[in-house]
Amino acid sequence: MVNVASYWAGDLDLSDLQFQRRPYDNDQAYRQSKQANRMLTVAFAQRWRDAGTTVNSCHPGDANSALSNALGFGGSQTAEEAAATPVWLATEPSLANTTGRYFANRRPARCVFAADAQGIAELDAICAKY
Length: 130
Known about the structure:
40% helix, Rossmann fold, alpha/beta, 5 helices
């Protein structure tokens, strides 16, 4: 499984995932969702490790899209260029046993959210209720 996250992640508020007590902010919602993607990647990787299912996340590149333009940063890559890392993660034989990692530019990248075991468990429990 490949989760498309982003290098532009953060500000996850586990007590208000759906902006019920805060005013909705497009930028914050995007960043929060990408942090959640990265954290759930770790939870899923742990859950499915013994089943032989690998789960990784990645920054897809900087595609020039309607979303990136609406968020104010445009993007400098074509869709094909931006898809290189997700496609590589899904098809690269040498990664067959790699799980729970975050990648950017077809290389492993540091993910500060992966170290938050308590936050990962809490988010996973919240999501399991849906």
